[in-house]
Amino acid sequence: MPLHPPAGVTPPPEAFNFAQHLLALNAPRAAKAAFVDDLGTLTYGALDERVKRLAAGLRALGIRREERVLLLMHDVTDWPVAFLGALYAGVVPVAVNTLLTADDYAYMLEHSRAQAVLVSGALLPVLEGALVKSDHEVGKVIVSRPLAPLKAAPAESSPLLPGQVDFDAFVADHAPLPKPAATGADDPAFWLYSSGSTGRPKGTVHSHANPYWTAELYGKGVLGLREDDVCFSAAKLFFAYGLGNALTFPLAVGATTLLMAERPTPDAVFKRWTGGVAGLKPTVFYGAPTGYAGMLASPALPARGDVALRLASSAGEALPAELGERFRHHFGVDIVDGIGSTEMLHIFMSNRPGQVRYGTTGWPVPGYEIELRGEDGRPVPDGEPGDLYIHGPSAALMYWGNRAKTRETFQGGWTKSGDKYVRNADGTYTYAGRSDDMLKVSGIYVSPFEVEATLVQHPAVLEAAVIGVPDAEGLTKTKAFVVLKPGGTATADELKAFVKDKLAPYKYPRQIEFIDELPKTATGKIQRFKLRERERAAP
User: Fold this and answer.
1) What mean pLDDT comes out for the span 328-353?
2) Angle between helices 44-60 and 78-89 in degrees, nearest 10
3) Residues 273 and 281: beta-carbon distance below 8 Å
4) CB neighbour list of residue 115: distance below 8 Å, 6 or more residues apart
5) How do residues 424-465 score in pLDDT, each as one tens digit?
6) % of the chain exceeding 70 in pLDDT
7) Phi then psi for 83, rounded to 5 degrees?
8) Residue 144: which of 272, 190, 127, 22 has the closest Cα?
């Protein structure tokens, strides 16, 4: 609970099921569109029924309270049904990134001990690859098979195998669960995986109360979302940012959400901005700086009069001031930039509609407290960089099965973010970089160590070091410095393709420079800061 809850914000009761909370709020809106995707509309009434039917189905499989199910699905109307249905049953959905590899999913299946998987048909081949690699047995695979959003995927229409069941049939075969699981506000509700600088992703466990707090404090309290809004998020539902944008926040006020299964390219976004799906034009758009840069550079950028935007949000990486100013000049709408994290579930520091300071991340969200601390653990004065700590009600309960990282991150009510910030005289905060070597590219963390370890698997590569470099828009891109073995030959394009084949595609280095040797300490550690200095000094 916040130390000083904003006026009018009431904590959830001790006995609390977040899915039931949202369904009850929207019971009077049964005929209104809750979600719209490329295939059609899911009304609030249909959402209520399908959530309760899916919950009954999970129970019928023998999945018990607090056991996990993996949620590996594209953004279509089945996603919120799956997520909320699990919560309603007291089952814990583990929402995972749809861009990962079979190795990644094999680890997540084993780590979460998932009892079932809810998966999009287009992702079924990579899941099947993960199941082969994993020693963990999954009881049932429930396959969502919409045809239109991902027409090229052969798995959409292929016959299901033993142990697999069609999502729609699974929902239809069960009567609605008459009442929700008797969960508490502090009970585990869902997991999101958070990447670290080394090692495997961390299973971040959130409670039933956490999404309630983010909706109350940020969705309503800062963004001021309304029932008549049409919300559209480029960030996908499996992200903490996208989950709030496209599910928690709009359902908390009875708004309508547009969902998009495909990649958020400028053309795909513009199609929806201008009413290309069901004739609905978004009034609220949530994006990331990389996406905004691509849209502003596109020759197809819509005119101000062709869109209905009243609010634009940004998170995932620091927004360059120039991007925000160009967007406002073109559309007459500010981009409200903020910072959140998987560990805090959504944004805890932000600019505000009508109160934007471009080049800063704004002010603490009411209900959250911020401290910047030096290496001695004490607060630093204004103008000096410090490690960012947050105190607020939406902090995760723990990292599952990782006590050391839990204790390092969650410290006596405070959460250490891993970011460095400077507090300005007007009370705003300016981003000063990461506390470790993690990179944030297009809003997603990329571990340089993982990319380096992949590069050195190439037979021609001796050593590699990866850093972040700003592009022309001021956004972070990865650059690899590569030392080849004596007599070894490789091209930059060859190495990029090699990494793409081994890792999720977004992790490949955008630039590769071949050098004779890497700067190192006397003990052999790579000095990445010297590579960053070299880049800054380059003409």
Assistant:
1) 97
2) 50
3) yes
4) 61, 63, 67, 68, 69, 138, 139
5) 999 999 998 777 777 778 777 787 878 888 898 999 998 899
6) 95
7) -65, -50
8) 127
